[in-house]
Amino acid sequence: MAVLPGRYIGRFAPSPTGPLHAGSLVAALASWLDARAHGGQWLVRIEDVDTPRCVPGADALILHQLAACGLLPDAPPTVQSQRSALYQQALDQLVVAGWAYPCGCSRKDVEAACAARGQLRQRNTELVYPGTCRNGLQGRPARAWRLRTDKFIRNKALAHIPPAQAAINSVVSDVLHWSDRLLGPQQQDLAAAVGDFVLRRADGLWAYQLAVVVDDAAQGISHVVRGQDLADNTPRQIRLQQALGLPTPQYLHTPLVLGANGEKLSKQNGAQALDTRAPLATLNAAAQVLGLPPQSDIPAMALAHWVNIWRSRYAA
Protein backbone atom coordinates (compact mmCIF):
# COMPACT_ATOMS: atom_id res chain seq x y z
CA MET A 1 0.00 0.00 0.00
CA ALA A 2 1.54 3.34 -1.02
CA VAL A 3 1.15 6.32 1.27
CA LEU A 4 -0.71 9.13 -0.50
CA PRO A 5 0.71 12.65 -0.03
CA GLY A 6 -0.72 14.17 3.12
CA ARG A 7 -2.45 10.94 4.13
CA TYR A 8 -2.07 9.90 7.74
CA ILE A 9 -2.11 6.22 8.76
CA GLY A 10 -1.08 5.32 12.29
CA ARG A 11 -1.07 2.09 14.25
CA PHE A 12 -0.95 0.48 17.67
CA ALA A 13 0.97 -2.79 17.61
CA PRO A 14 0.71 -4.81 20.85
CA SER A 15 2.29 -8.20 21.41
CA PRO A 16 -0.29 -10.71 22.73
CA THR A 17 1.83 -11.84 25.66
CA GLY A 18 -0.97 -10.92 28.08
CA PRO A 19 -3.58 -8.21 28.65
CA LEU A 20 -2.89 -4.51 28.25
CA HIS A 21 -1.61 -2.73 31.35
CA ALA A 22 -1.27 0.94 32.27
CA GLY A 23 1.91 1.42 30.27
CA SER A 24 0.58 -0.12 27.07
CA LEU A 25 -2.61 1.95 27.29
CA VAL A 26 -0.51 5.14 27.26
CA ALA A 27 0.97 4.12 23.90
CA ALA A 28 -2.43 3.07 22.56
CA LEU A 29 -4.08 6.32 23.63
CA ALA A 30 -1.27 8.47 22.22
CA SER A 31 -1.34 6.73 18.85
CA TRP A 32 -5.15 6.95 18.68
CA LEU A 33 -5.13 10.66 19.59
CA ASP A 34 -2.45 11.40 17.02
CA ALA A 35 -4.42 9.70 14.27
CA ARG A 36 -7.66 11.47 15.20
CA ALA A 37 -5.89 14.84 15.56
CA HIS A 38 -4.61 14.45 11.99
CA GLY A 39 -7.95 13.24 10.64
CA GLY A 40 -6.27 9.97 9.72
CA GLN A 41 -6.71 6.23 10.07
CA TRP A 42 -5.83 4.23 13.19
CA LEU A 43 -4.96 0.56 12.77
CA VAL A 44 -4.21 -2.25 15.21
CA ARG A 45 -1.58 -4.85 14.41
CA ILE A 46 -1.13 -7.95 16.56
CA GLU A 47 2.63 -8.54 16.70
CA ASP A 48 2.78 -12.24 17.45
CA VAL A 49 5.92 -13.32 15.59
CA ASP A 50 7.53 -14.33 18.90
CA THR A 51 5.09 -17.21 19.25
CA PRO A 52 6.62 -18.86 22.36
CA ARG A 53 5.82 -15.73 24.39
CA CYS A 54 2.25 -15.32 23.12
CA VAL A 55 -0.68 -16.21 25.37
CA PRO A 56 -3.72 -17.89 23.77
CA GLY A 57 -6.67 -15.51 23.74
CA ALA A 58 -4.60 -12.43 24.60
CA ASP A 59 -5.21 -10.86 21.20
CA ALA A 60 -8.99 -10.97 21.66
CA LEU A 61 -8.65 -9.65 25.21
CA ILE A 62 -6.51 -6.72 24.03
CA LEU A 63 -9.09 -5.76 21.41
CA HIS A 64 -11.82 -5.96 24.06
CA GLN A 65 -9.83 -3.70 26.41
CA LEU A 66 -9.28 -1.14 23.66
CA ALA A 67 -12.96 -1.15 22.74
CA ALA A 68 -13.98 -0.70 26.37
CA CYS A 69 -11.87 2.48 26.42
CA GLY A 70 -13.41 3.77 23.18
CA LEU A 71 -10.29 3.07 21.09
CA LEU A 72 -11.68 1.37 18.00
CA PRO A 73 -9.50 0.64 14.93
CA ASP A 74 -10.63 1.72 11.48
CA ALA A 75 -10.03 -1.70 9.91
CA PRO A 76 -9.82 -5.32 11.05
CA PRO A 77 -6.56 -6.05 12.91
CA THR A 78 -3.55 -7.40 11.03
CA VAL A 79 -1.83 -10.45 12.51
CA GLN A 80 1.91 -10.84 11.94
CA SER A 81 1.95 -14.63 12.20
CA GLN A 82 -0.06 -14.72 8.96
CA ARG A 83 2.49 -12.67 7.01
CA SER A 84 5.59 -14.87 6.91
CA ALA A 85 5.73 -14.86 3.10
CA LEU A 86 6.19 -11.07 3.07
CA TYR A 87 9.08 -11.29 5.54
CA GLN A 88 10.75 -14.00 3.45
CA GLN A 89 10.48 -11.83 0.34
CA ALA A 90 12.15 -8.97 2.19
CA LEU A 91 14.95 -11.20 3.46
CA ASP A 92 15.51 -12.59 -0.03
CA GLN A 93 15.80 -9.03 -1.36
CA LEU A 94 18.36 -8.14 1.29
CA VAL A 95 20.42 -11.24 0.56
CA VAL A 96 20.51 -10.53 -3.18
CA ALA A 97 21.53 -6.92 -2.50
CA GLY A 98 24.38 -7.96 -0.20
CA TRP A 99 22.85 -6.51 2.96
CA ALA A 100 22.08 -9.80 4.73
CA TYR A 101 24.21 -12.85 5.50
CA PRO A 102 23.86 -16.16 7.39
CA CYS A 103 25.34 -16.32 10.89
CA GLY A 104 26.46 -19.46 12.71
CA CYS A 105 27.15 -17.84 16.10
CA SER A 106 25.40 -18.97 19.26
CA ARG A 107 24.84 -16.59 22.18
CA LYS A 108 27.90 -18.07 23.85
CA ASP A 109 29.96 -17.50 20.71
CA VAL A 110 28.94 -13.84 20.63
CA GLU A 111 29.64 -13.38 24.34
CA ALA A 112 33.08 -15.02 23.99
CA ALA A 113 33.99 -12.88 20.96
CA CYS A 114 32.90 -9.72 22.74
CA ALA A 115 34.71 -10.68 25.95
CA ALA A 116 37.90 -11.16 23.92
CA ARG A 117 37.50 -7.55 22.82
CA GLY A 118 36.91 -6.38 26.36
CA GLN A 119 33.19 -5.79 25.82
CA LEU A 120 31.09 -7.11 28.69
CA ARG A 121 27.30 -7.21 28.83
CA GLN A 122 25.81 -4.29 30.73
CA ARG A 123 22.45 -4.50 32.46
CA ASN A 124 19.52 -3.88 30.08
CA THR A 125 21.82 -3.63 27.06
CA GLU A 126 22.72 -5.92 24.17
CA LEU A 127 26.20 -6.93 23.14
CA VAL A 128 27.43 -5.38 19.89
CA TYR A 129 27.81 -8.22 17.40
CA PRO A 130 31.48 -8.20 16.25
CA GLY A 131 30.79 -9.33 12.66
CA THR A 132 32.25 -12.81 13.08
CA CYS A 133 30.34 -14.34 10.14
CA ARG A 134 30.37 -11.37 7.74
CA ASN A 135 32.91 -13.08 5.52
CA GLY A 136 31.70 -16.65 5.88
CA LEU A 137 30.45 -19.20 8.38
CA GLN A 138 33.95 -20.60 9.05
CA GLY A 139 32.68 -24.16 9.18
CA ARG A 140 29.69 -23.44 11.40
CA PRO A 141 26.16 -24.34 10.28
CA ALA A 142 23.92 -21.35 9.56
CA ARG A 143 21.74 -20.45 12.53
CA ALA A 144 20.37 -16.97 11.91
CA TRP A 145 20.40 -14.15 9.35
CA ARG A 146 21.85 -10.71 10.09
CA LEU A 147 21.89 -7.28 8.45
CA ARG A 148 25.27 -5.72 7.73
CA THR A 149 25.91 -2.35 9.34
CA ASP A 150 29.57 -1.92 8.28
CA LYS A 151 30.98 0.10 5.39
CA PHE A 152 30.94 -2.93 3.08
CA ILE A 153 27.56 -1.92 1.73
CA ARG A 154 28.79 1.36 0.32
CA ASN A 155 32.13 0.32 -1.11
CA LYS A 156 31.32 -3.15 -2.50
CA ALA A 157 27.71 -4.25 -2.44
CA LEU A 158 26.39 -1.33 -4.48
CA ALA A 159 27.90 -2.91 -7.57
CA HIS A 160 25.42 -5.77 -7.29
CA ILE A 161 22.32 -3.67 -6.64
CA PRO A 162 19.96 -2.50 -9.42
CA PRO A 163 20.44 1.22 -10.26
CA ALA A 164 17.21 2.35 -8.60
CA GLN A 165 18.14 0.55 -5.39
CA ALA A 166 21.74 1.76 -5.55
CA ALA A 167 20.49 5.34 -5.69
CA ILE A 168 18.74 4.78 -2.39
CA ASN A 169 21.63 2.96 -0.74
CA SER A 170 24.21 5.49 -1.87
CA VAL A 171 22.94 7.97 0.71
CA VAL A 172 23.53 5.57 3.60
CA SER A 173 25.94 7.06 6.13
CA ASP A 174 27.79 5.70 9.17
CA VAL A 175 25.69 7.77 11.58
CA LEU A 176 21.92 7.73 11.22
CA HIS A 177 20.13 11.02 11.88
CA TRP A 178 16.39 11.44 12.38
CA SER A 179 14.00 13.75 14.21
CA ASP A 180 11.55 12.51 16.81
CA ARG A 181 8.39 14.63 17.06
CA LEU A 182 8.68 14.72 20.87
CA LEU A 183 12.33 13.97 21.65
CA GLY A 184 13.77 16.16 18.89
CA PRO A 185 16.94 15.48 16.82
CA GLN A 186 18.41 11.99 17.30
CA GLN A 187 21.42 10.15 15.97
CA GLN A 188 23.18 6.81 16.32
CA ASP A 189 26.25 5.12 14.87
CA LEU A 190 24.49 1.84 14.22
CA ALA A 191 27.60 -0.25 13.64
CA ALA A 192 29.21 0.93 16.87
CA ALA A 193 26.12 0.90 19.06
CA VAL A 194 24.35 -2.24 17.80
CA GLY A 195 26.38 -4.05 15.18
CA ASP A 196 24.95 -6.45 12.63
CA PHE A 197 21.51 -7.31 13.97
CA VAL A 198 19.30 -10.36 13.55
CA LEU A 199 16.61 -10.55 10.86
CA ARG A 200 15.65 -14.19 11.32
CA ARG A 201 16.41 -16.00 14.54
CA ALA A 202 18.18 -19.31 15.03
CA ASP A 203 14.84 -20.90 15.96
CA GLY A 204 13.41 -19.88 12.58
CA LEU A 205 11.21 -17.09 13.95
CA TRP A 206 11.24 -13.66 12.33
CA ALA A 207 12.92 -10.89 14.26
CA TYR A 208 10.82 -7.92 15.36
CA GLN A 209 12.91 -5.40 13.39
CA LEU A 210 12.28 -6.97 9.99
CA ALA A 211 8.62 -7.77 10.61
CA VAL A 212 7.72 -4.28 11.82
CA VAL A 213 9.46 -2.55 8.90
CA VAL A 214 7.79 -4.79 6.31
CA ASP A 215 4.37 -4.39 7.93
CA ASP A 216 4.61 -0.62 8.38
CA ALA A 217 5.37 -0.27 4.67
CA ALA A 218 2.71 -2.76 3.56
CA GLN A 219 0.06 -0.96 5.62
CA GLY A 220 1.17 2.48 4.45
CA ILE A 221 2.01 3.65 7.97
CA SER A 222 2.96 7.32 7.81
CA HIS A 223 3.31 8.00 11.56
CA VAL A 224 4.53 5.74 14.35
CA VAL A 225 3.61 6.70 17.92
CA ARG A 226 4.94 4.34 20.59
CA GLY A 227 6.71 4.22 23.97
CA GLN A 228 10.19 5.59 24.55
CA ASP A 229 11.47 2.10 25.33
CA LEU A 230 11.27 1.47 21.59
CA ALA A 231 13.12 4.63 20.55
CA ASP A 232 16.41 2.72 20.33
CA ASN A 233 14.85 0.46 17.68
CA THR A 234 14.32 3.39 15.33
CA PRO A 235 17.80 3.51 13.73
CA ARG A 236 17.71 -0.21 12.98
CA GLN A 237 14.33 0.20 11.34
CA ILE A 238 15.46 3.23 9.35
CA ARG A 239 18.48 1.28 8.07
CA LEU A 240 16.19 -1.56 6.99
CA GLN A 241 13.88 0.92 5.27
CA GLN A 242 16.88 2.29 3.38
CA ALA A 243 18.06 -1.17 2.41
CA LEU A 244 14.62 -2.22 1.18
CA GLY A 245 13.84 1.07 -0.55
CA LEU A 246 10.87 1.75 1.75
CA PRO A 247 9.58 5.10 3.09
CA THR A 248 10.46 6.16 6.62
CA PRO A 249 7.48 7.14 8.79
CA GLN A 250 7.54 10.04 11.22
CA TYR A 251 8.22 8.91 14.79
CA LEU A 252 6.97 10.10 18.18
CA HIS A 253 8.02 8.27 21.35
CA THR A 254 5.84 8.80 24.40
CA PRO A 255 6.82 8.86 28.11
CA LEU A 256 6.86 5.55 29.95
CA VAL A 257 4.90 4.40 32.98
CA LEU A 258 7.39 3.20 35.59
CA GLY A 259 7.03 0.38 38.05
CA ALA A 260 7.83 0.48 41.75
CA ASN A 261 11.47 -0.35 40.96
CA GLY A 262 11.83 2.71 38.74
CA GLU A 263 11.97 0.67 35.54
CA LYS A 264 9.48 0.48 32.70
CA LEU A 265 6.19 -0.99 33.88
CA SER A 266 5.85 -4.52 32.55
CA LYS A 267 4.43 -7.88 33.45
CA GLN A 268 7.86 -8.79 34.80
CA ASN A 269 7.74 -6.06 37.46
CA GLY A 270 4.16 -6.34 38.58
CA ALA A 271 2.03 -4.62 35.95
CA GLN A 272 -1.62 -5.42 36.46
CA ALA A 273 -4.17 -5.89 33.68
CA LEU A 274 -6.24 -2.81 32.88
CA ASP A 275 -9.47 -2.55 34.84
CA THR A 276 -11.88 -1.56 32.08
CA ARG A 277 -14.89 -1.59 34.40
CA ALA A 278 -14.12 2.11 35.00
CA PRO A 279 -12.88 3.24 31.57
CA LEU A 280 -12.84 6.96 32.34
CA ALA A 281 -10.58 6.50 35.35
CA THR A 282 -8.33 4.21 33.31
CA LEU A 283 -8.15 6.74 30.46
CA ASN A 284 -7.50 9.64 32.86
CA ALA A 285 -4.50 7.80 34.31
CA ALA A 286 -3.05 7.28 30.82
CA ALA A 287 -3.81 10.88 29.82
CA GLN A 288 -1.95 12.19 32.87
CA VAL A 289 1.24 10.48 31.69
CA LEU A 290 0.81 12.27 28.36
CA GLY A 291 0.38 15.64 30.06
CA LEU A 292 -3.35 15.85 29.34
CA PRO A 293 -5.83 17.22 31.90
CA PRO A 294 -8.25 14.82 33.63
CA GLN A 295 -11.85 14.76 32.46
CA SER A 296 -15.08 14.11 34.39
CA ASP A 297 -17.39 13.50 31.43
CA ILE A 298 -18.11 10.23 29.63
CA PRO A 299 -15.13 8.58 27.88
CA ALA A 300 -16.23 9.69 24.39
CA MET A 301 -16.33 13.34 25.46
CA ALA A 302 -13.00 13.01 27.26
CA LEU A 303 -11.38 11.57 24.15
CA ALA A 304 -12.80 14.37 21.99
CA HIS A 305 -11.39 16.98 24.38
CA TRP A 306 -7.96 15.38 24.37
CA VAL A 307 -7.97 15.19 20.56
CA ASN A 308 -8.31 18.98 20.41
CA ILE A 309 -5.41 19.45 22.83
CA TRP A 310 -3.28 16.94 20.95
CA ARG A 311 -4.04 18.69 17.66
CA SER A 312 -2.76 21.99 19.03
CA ARG A 313 0.47 20.33 20.16
CA TYR A 314 1.38 17.86 17.42
CA ALA A 315 -0.78 18.26 14.32
CA ALA A 316 0.62 21.54 13.12
UniProtKB/TrEMBL annotation:
It comes from Rhodoferax ferrireducens. ATP binds at residue 267. InterPro entries: Glu-Q_tRNA(Asp)_Synthase, Glu/Gln-tRNA-synth, Glu/Gln-tRNA-synth_Ib_cat-dom, GluQ/Sye, Rossmann-like_a/b/a_fold. L-glutamate binds at residues 11-15, 47, 208, 226. It comes from the Bacteria. Residues 11-274 form the Glutamyl/glutaminyl-tRNA synthetase class Ib catalytic domain. Coiled coil: none annotated. This is Glutamyl-Q tRNA(Asp) synthetase. Zn(2+) binds at residues 103, 105, 129, 133. One of its GO terms (molecular function) is ligase activity. SUPFAM superfamilies: Nucleotidylyl transferase (SSF52374). A motif ('KMSKS' region) lies at residues 264-268. The keyword ATP-binding applies. Pfam families: tRNA-synt_1c (PF00749). Its cofactor is Zn(2+). Catalyzes the tRNA-independent activation of glutamate in presence of ATP and the subsequent transfer of glutamate onto a tRNA(Asp). Glutamate is transferred on the 2-amino-5-(4,5-dihydroxy-2-cyclopenten-1-yl) moiety of the queuosine in the wobble position of the QUC anticodon. Binds 1 zinc ion per subunit. Belongs to the class-I aminoacyl-tRNA synthetase family. GluQ subfamily. A motif ('HIGH' region) lies at residues 14-24. Keywords: Aminoacyl-tRNA synthetase, ATP-binding, Ligase, Metal-binding, Nucleotide-binding, Protein biosynthesis, Zinc. Its EC number is 6.1.1.-.
